[in-house]
Write a structure and sequence with these properties.
heterodimer; A: 486 residues; mainly alpha; MetI-like fold; 2 domains; two-stranded antiparallel sheet; 75% helix; B: 265 residues; alpha/beta; Rossmann fold; 6-stranded mixed β-sheet; 4-stranded antiparallel β-sheet; 10 strands; globular
Chain lengths: 486, 265
């Protein structure tokens, strides 16, 4: 039975459990709700949740674990000497799965009987041709051990599916029975249901945390592989970036880091003053009517996909800067430049800075402003000397969040600043960033075990550490600010 | 403690500092202050009492034009300080507020050092010629705020780190630092404990030597303790205004008597 039908059945049991549990509770209280410990619906939910949650949890675990178990057992069919120099076990295993799928298709199309599919052998039949006839194209003739592995794979998959079905339905019925029998007027269904919800919430939170850990670990492992092939001092202190696949690449991060920081710096130079001034105007001077229109309008900037900003950089800002600034002043010939990417990225960051700063300025208590105005300070003196200093930590936090956003930006840089790694001070030269190089090292026809590819993970981890550090610092500052008034 | 103890009255000889004639205040359509006429004497503590929402704080905020910062608020009638109409076009509300200091309900020290809190006003108005002068102003103001001894060793620590009563005295010192002529206090003790309240009340009595003090309070005992004159507001009207002793012992208006004896409020 497929997973989908299992789901339907389990949910059906759950719905049934809700109705039965509710009515059993009511019956035990002689139909008077006041005699129950909890509201009738809680008894229903208790039975429904006890039926559904353990069954679905087990289903999730089984569908993760069973394929791995089957793969392990099937791979014993593959003789070690059949794995040649340039392939891996996983490639052979994907052949096995393809043949197994092909046999399934053939049985489903009626081209083979089930018995035939399990007993057919390469000595007697041309399996490739038989499968080709039902539309399953195989790249090469089927090796005898692959066919045997595929047949074993099918048998085990069928068995696993059968067992899964029994187990899941068994667990669902078990949960149903236990919770149903426990249902009576004294049973504290409300507390049990609320504990169940608490567990769900905790599961959701831990998934978010575990995912982060998973990302970090996958990066760390690949980065370790990279540093086994390439010395870390050359990576962190190398000033040339010229990967090639002959094996003598220079993979120094310095030019990329320089490009990243240079472009982010220009972006912040644009975004911070404009965003901050906009925030001051909106929160302190603008009328309520104007503010309610202008704030969402600025926030729309944050909703534009970065690729659209990239196009804007490529076709408008880049040529404009080249024709009116770079060429007349003899600074460069390229439309792709640090300046282009920085300016456009700065525009993208304006709403980050302005929206957060606006909220923070608004959070400064009115009594602060009253105190300053009551002494005879003007509105602008009050803003400069009382409101902004009080909001400063929060504003710094906003700027740091914008900075980590700038450092991680990719599309605007590809289209605005180009892909040439370079160490240069001239803002009208093309340069590139860490993120762009991660993309270009991982895309295309590459060998996944070479340092030229693995360097992407080292770059990614470096970037992750930098932005993580910035975020932690920003959060620290924002939190410190929160403690200030109460 | 005799809560209704009346402090000695010597107000007859004082000249008028603030005079209000036919003052009306509107918040949008709401007529908050109706026909208020009052003459507030110099070097006197005048208390505004009345139930919540009666307009006493609103009227107080008219005296230094703090109501200007509220968009929907509109003030009509004349308020004059030393005979000069403060709602005249020529008057800059910012300059006026330097002359008419204000202390708020909740202590609101700036998130700066104690020194900078006090020096804020003098710096803005250019009252100090040099650093030594400013140091002097800060010390004098803190002494007048009766808090110098407690903070003289930690002038450069944040003002927000002080206790509530100390913060409120710091705010009074901050208001005094710009050398105002009038000091407005909007329920200055409502966020303080009885000990801090006593300290602030003592301070208010001392401030009377130099300033005309107007205090809004919900505590009738406090009004009786610190003020020489009392004004009773009710539903936007100034019901009765006179010597504190007379108001508390022999009120003319039945509403005043009801309020003081606790029947309305």
């Amino acid at each position: 039975m497929s997973v989908f039908f299992l789901l339907i059945i389990v949910l059906g049991f759950g719905a049934l459990g809700f109705v039965l549990g509710r009515s059993r509770a009511l019956a035990s209280a002689d139909g008077n709700i006041r005699n129950l410990h909890s509201l009738p619906n809680y008894y229903g939910f208790n039975v429904a949740l006890s039926t559904i949650i353990p069954a679905l949890g087990l289903l999730a675990i089984l569908s993760l674990v069973l394929p791995i178990l089957i793969d392990n057992r099937v791979s014993t069919f593959i003789p070690a000497d059949s794995i040649s120099e340039d392939t891996t076990r996983s490639l052979v295993m994907s052949d096995v799965r393809r043949v197994a799928d092909g046999l399934d298709t053939a049985v489903a199309a009626g081209a083979m009987t089930e018995d035939e599919a399990q007993t057919v052998s390469t000595e007697t039949t041309d399996v490739r041709e038989r499968l080709g006839a039902v539309g399953v194209a195989l790249g090469s003739n089927v090796e005898p051990f692959v066919l045997r592995a595929a047949q074993s794979y099918r048998a085990q998959a069928a068995a696993a599916q059968l067992w899964t079905t029994f187990l899941i339905i068994g667990v669902a019925i078990g949960g149903f029975a236990i919770s149903f029998l426990r249902t009576n007027r004294e049973f504290r269904a409300r507390n049990v249901v609320e504990n169940g919800v608490l567990v769900l919430l905790m599961a959701a939170a831990s998934i978010a945390i575990l995912t982060t850990l998973g990302i970090v670990f996958s990066m760390v492992f690949e980065t370790r592989n990279f540093f086994q092939d390439y010395h870390w001092t050359d990576f962190f202190f190398g000033t040339t970036w010229s990967p090639n696949f002959r094996g003598d690449s220079d993979l120094g991060i310095i030019p990329l880091l320089w490009g990243t920081l240079y472009i982010s710096f220009i972006a912040l130079l644009v975004a911070v003053p404009i965003g901050l001034f906009a925030a001051i105007y909106l929160s302190e001077y603008a009328t309520h009517k104007f503010r309610s229109f202008a704030k969402p309008a600025i926030e729309i900037l944050a909703g534009i996909p970065t690729i659209v900003y990239g196009l804007f950089a490529l076709i408008t800002v880049g040529p404009f800067l080249r024709d009116y600034f770079a060429q007349p002043s003899g600074l460069g010939e390229s439309a792709s430049s640090v300046m282009t990417a920085g300016l456009v990225m700065g525009i993208m960051l304006i709403p980050f800075v302005s929206s957060l700063s606006d909220d923070i300025i608004n959070a400064v208590p009115q009594s602060m402003r009253d105190g300053s105005l009551g002494i005879g300070a003007t509105h602008s003196e009050t803003i400069r000397q009382v409101v902004l200093p009080a909001a400063l930590p929060g504003i710094v936090g906003a700027v740091l969040l914008a900075a980590s956003r700038a450092i991680g930006e990719t599309m605007i840089v590809v289209l605005g600043a180009g892909a040439a790694a370079r160490l240069d001070l001239n803002p009208f030269e093309a340069m590139t960033t860490v993120t762009v190089k991660i993309v270009s090292q991982l895309t295309g026809d590459t060998d996944f075990a070479s340092p030229e590819t693995l360097v992407a993970f080292a770059l990614g981890l470096t970037l992750f550490v930098i932005t993580l550090g910035l975020n932690v610092f920003a959060l620290y500052i924002v939190r410190k600010y929160r403690e200030q008034y109460e | 403690m005799d809560d209704l103890r009346i402090v000695e009255r010597d107000v007859d000889a004082k000249e008028t500092k603030i005079s209000a004639k036919n003052v009306q205040v509107y918040y949008g359509d709401n007529h908050a202050i109706k026909d208020v006429n009052v003459e507030i004497a110099d070097k006197t503590v005048t208390a505004f009492i009345g139930p919540s929402g009666c307009g006493k704080s609103t009227f107080l905020r008219c005296i230094n034009r703090m109501n200007d910062t509220i968009d929907v608020c509109r003030v009509e009638g004349d308020i004059a300080i030393d005979g000069e109409d403060i709602y005249d076009r020529k008057v800059d509300p910012v300059q006026l507020r330097a002359k008419v200091g204000m202390v708020f309900q909740k202590p609101n020290p700036f998130p700066k050092s104690i020194y900078d809190n006090i020096a804020y006003g003098p710096r803005i108005h250019g009252l100090a010629k040099n650093k030594a002068d400013l140091d002097n102003i800060v010390e004098q103001s803190l002494r007048r705020g009766a808090i110098w001894d407690e903070v003289k060793d930690r002038l450069h620590e944040p003002g927000t780190g002080l206790s509530g009563g100390q913060q409120q005295r710091l705010c009074i010192a901050r208001a005094v630092a710009t050398e105002p002529e009038v000091l407005l206090m909007d329920e200055p003790c409502s966020a303080l404990d009885p000990i801090a309240t006593a300290q602030v009340e003592e301070l208010i009595d001392e401030l009377r030597q130099n300033y005309s003090v107007v205090i809004v309070t919900h505590s009738m005992q406090q009004a009786a303790r610190v003020s020489q004159k009392t004004a009773f507001f009710h539903l936007g009207y100034l019901v009765e205004y006179g010597e504190t002793g007379t108001i508390f012992t022999n009120p003319e208006d039945p509403r005043t008597e009801s309020y003081i004896t606790g029947r309305i409020g």
